[in-house]
Design goal:
Distance between the termini: 54 Å
Low-confidence stretches: none
Shape: globular
Bound molecules: adenosine-5'-diphosphate
Radius of gyration: 20 Å
Strand content: 25-35%
Largest sheet: 6 strands, mixed
Length: 274
């Protein structure tokens, strides 16, 4: 008889996590695991705690109850620099205090790896160049970050994260302001990071259709709890989604991609019975 294949050790282990802001509980008793090198997407209605969960995983918000471990170490035991060597975090919007060039922004990704004097070496410059080439922003290297389009800016911040050489990249709605071509470009980049470099990706996204095509694991959050967790084809169940989002939906398998496709139904098409 063949032995069962061993369960992979999780990269992130969240156990009974509850947190919120003051008396306002946002996340209640969340337990889940994220495996190394996986593409993990967090979805759910507005205000259900997706960003709060991502910030907890990035070590930027502290759980009020429960624990988060990274590779078996409590996140609270890791200082900022050692955390930044493991995890790159891309928030919804990045404000830059100074007008920097693209190359200077990407080089900032090396900060957690620099010595006490904080001086870049040749190898750091080479890594920045390589990260810019990977994300297709090398031709923009000497442009000011302020002069770029939304799609270009997004790729520059992804380039900075790649240059950081983390084990996981955490992104908060990176495609929400992008047109269709740029959305797919960002998702393809994340897939290549996973496939070619073994980097894990955790992404908050409202786009269930992109999630269906790219995620290994989809985590649906509703009212601060995990409503469903698993392969997108299991999570994207019509009745469940209608309950969570509170609107009628049409769910079908795309003949092109084979992934599930979710569409809201306009009120005028609902008919008298609703
Ligand atoms: P989501 O990402 O799912 O939209 P968030 O995690 O941003 O949800 O927010 C969850 C809830 O926490 C919301 O009700 C929001 O108003 C509240 N919240 C988020 N950030 C703060 C904050 N800094 N202070 C107080 N309340 C907050």
């Amino acid at each position: 008889m063949m032995a069962d294949s061993p369960t992979p050790t999780p990269y992130f282990s969240i156990t009974h996590l509850s947190t919120g802001y003051g008396d306002h509980t946002v996340l209640s008793d969340i337990s889940l695991a994220v495996h190394p090198g996986s593409f993990f997407i967090i979805a759910g209605p507005n205000g259900t705690g997706k960003t709060t969960l991502l910030r907890c995983l990035a070590g930027l918000s502290r759980p009020q109850k429960g624990t988060i471990q990274i590779n078996g170490t409590l996140i609270s035991k890791l200082n900022r620099k050692s955390l930044a060597r493991r995890i790159a975090f891309l928030p919804q919007s990045v404000e830059m205090a100074f007008s920097l060039t693209v190359c200077e922004v990407v080089l900032m990704g090396r900060s957690p790896h620099l010595g006490i004097l904080g001086v870049h070496k040749e190898a750091d410059l080479a890594l920045a160049e390589e990260a810019m080439a990977f994300t297709d922003v090398l031709p923009l290297a000497h442009r000011s970050i302020d002069s770029l389009s939304g799609g270009e800016r997004q790729r520059v911040f992804i380039s900075r994260a790649v240059c950081q050489q983390p084990e996981f990249i955490l992104l908060d709605e990176p495609t929400s302001a992008l047109d269709l071509a740029h959305q797919v470009r960002v998702m393809d980049l994340m897939e290549r990071l996973k496939e070619e470099r073994g980097m894990g990706v955790i992404m908050v996204s409202h786009d269930l259709n992109l999630a269906a095509m790219y995620a290994d694991t989809l985590c649906l959050i509703h009212q601060g709890e995990v409503a469903a967790l698993g392969a997108p084809s299991d999570v994207l169940e019509k009745k469940r989604l209608e309950d969570v989002y509170g609107c009628p939906l049409f769910v079908e398998k795309s003949p092109v991609t084979g992934a599930l496709h979710v569409m809201p139904i306009p009120a005028r098409l609902k008919g008298p019975s609703g």
